[in-house]
Write a structure and sequence with these properties.
alpha/beta
């Protein structure tokens, strides 16, 4: 299993957290544009056989892929990691593991579809621009009761069915501006007070919306085939002020003991 992260600021805490909870797995940290100092700082904490920094050059792709807000690079780095590994657990850089006992996730993925995601309380139709459905030759009505899943955490196995049925169409959409970024799409100004709540809120999830359409179409709108069935919590979010404090501590050459926490950062 490769634990994957794509970053523009050095997630030293992430590297330590993965090493703490999953010492027998490899962390791949994708560099999406760190400066020289930040890159050197990260490499000083991630330079072993169990932690690798991957320099991922976004300029090779269409220009919209570099836009932070649409995260079109997310499926690209996940696919790149899948090319190197049998399975990938993707975490955003502000996420941390709270447990190393991830066997239930792995077992569900292996015995099921090869994908494990986490459902939200929102309908896919409420957070997807109507024009994106057109790209996939579908319509919003089919997704009114399909829960949107998170793209903050994803477990994906590198099997043929997932490659052709999930990753390929997701990557194709991410590389196509008219798909991932339809004219008029925006991520702010959500209006969830609309009735019924599955109506489009005015907010678009970009690559996340594309993934949810792909999963819905692939698995016949049955989210039980690709969402986590248990109640155990595996991850936590690190707030911006905590990340800032982490970096400040590193900048003054704090020792490990002054920075590390009970769960590795």
């Amino acid at each position: 299993l490769r634990v994957l992260n794509g970053i523009r600021s050095p997630p030293v805490g992430f590297a330590r957290n993965v090493a703490h909870f999953l010492p027998n797995h490899t962390a791949l940290i994708y560099n999406l544009g760190l400066g020289q100092y930040a890159l050197q700082l990260l490499q000083s904490h991630c330079n072993s056989s169990r932690c690798n920094v991957v320099n991922f050059e976004l300029t090779f792709f269409p220009s919209h892929v570099e836009e932070e807000r649409i995260h079109a690079f997310r499926p690209l780095i996940i696919q790149d990691a899948l090319n190197k590994a049998g399975a990938v657990l993707f975490l955003e850089c502000n996420q941390r593991l709270v447990s190393g006992h991830i066997e239930p996730l792995l077992q569900q993925a292996v015995s099921g579809s090869g994908v494990v995601s986490w459902a939200t309380h929102y309908a896919t139709s409420s957070l997807t621009h109507p024009k994106m459905f057109d790209y996939f030759h579908s319509n919003a009505d089919s997704f009114l009761f399909l829960p949107m899943v998170e793209t903050t955490w994803l477990l994906i196995y590198n099997i043929a069915e997932v490659h052709t049925g999930v990753m390929l169409p997701w990557v194709q959409c991410a590389l196509t501006q008219d798909c991932v970024l339809p004219i008029g799409a925006q991520s702010g100004g959500c209006k969830f007070n609309k009735k019924p709540q599955y109506r489009y809120s005015g907010c678009h999830g970009y690559d996340g919306s594309a993934l949810n359409i792909v999963l819905g179409l692939k698995f016949g709108f049955d989210e039980s085939q690709y969402t986590y069935k248990g109640k155990k919590i595996f991850f936590r979010e690190v707030k911006a002020d905590t990340l800032a404090a982490e970096m400040a501590g590193l900048d003054v050459n704090a020792t490990d003991s002054t920075i590390i926490t009970r769960d590795g950062m």
